[in-house]
């Protein structure tokens, strides 16, 4: 099955040129550079829809891989890095991104629903964790609604201190990359433990 239409905020990043998209320990990443990095990873993922298991860290590389998969129409199973081996054993993803991109097969072993864009794990507090399925339309609608309600402006900068594999942490990223195209700081801590203060 070929890739479906990408989620809106994952496409057309270069349109915003040299404006800051992300800020990390290595400095600022402009939208044009982010677009080039996303395009390179999307090319590696290819045109055949594949299940991508992504070890979510609050860093620029995770954001690049996430946006590349969405751009290519590849469903993403977003997980805490400590869960990757267990989830890979159960769900047999076609690609695993955990620091590097590892293709487990050239195509896909799955019949992926055409609307599936994202799989997020529940906490498992009432039993074993379950995966929640989200469509591209749901991701787009959620990001747009949050951006509109909060009045996010292009001059705003969000701090993504919550893990990206949490729905709230991911919604901060998605809503800021949505229509407003504000920048996010995926690895900017509010304080360091050694300083003892915010």
Automatic annotation (TrEMBL):
Domain (AMP-dependent synthetase/ligase) spans 106-178
What does UniProt give as the signal peptide span?
A: none
Q: Which Pfam families match?
A: AMP-binding
The family classification in the record reads: Belongs to the ATP-dependent AMP-binding enzyme family.
From the Swiss-Prot or TrEMBL record, give the protein name.
AMP-binding protein
């Amino acid at each position: 099955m070929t890739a479906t239409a990408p989620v809106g905020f994952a496409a057309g990043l270069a349109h915003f040129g040299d404006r800051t998209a992300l800020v990390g320990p290595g400095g600022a990443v402009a939208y044009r550079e982010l677009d080039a990095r996303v395009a390179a990873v999307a090319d590696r993922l290819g045109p055949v829809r594949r299940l991508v298991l992504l070890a979510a860290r609050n860093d620029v590389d995770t954001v690049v891989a996430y946006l590349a998969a969405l751009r290519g129409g590849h469903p993403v199973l977003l997980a805490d890095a400590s869960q990757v081996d267990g989830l890979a054993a159960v769900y047999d993803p076609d690609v695993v991104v955990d620091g590097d991109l590892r293709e487990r097969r050239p195509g896909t072993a799955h019949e992926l629903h055409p609307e599936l864009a994202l799989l997020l794990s529940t906490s498992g507090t009432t039993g074993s964790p379950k995966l929640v399925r989200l469509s591209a339309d749901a991701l787009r609608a959620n990001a747009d609604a949050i951006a509109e309600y909060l009045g996010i402006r292009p001059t705003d900068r969000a701090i993504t201190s919550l893990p990206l594999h949490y729905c709230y942490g991911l919604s901060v990223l998605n809503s800021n990359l949505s229509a407003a195209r504000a920048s996010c700081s995926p690895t900017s801590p509010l304080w360091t433990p050694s300083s003892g203060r915010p």
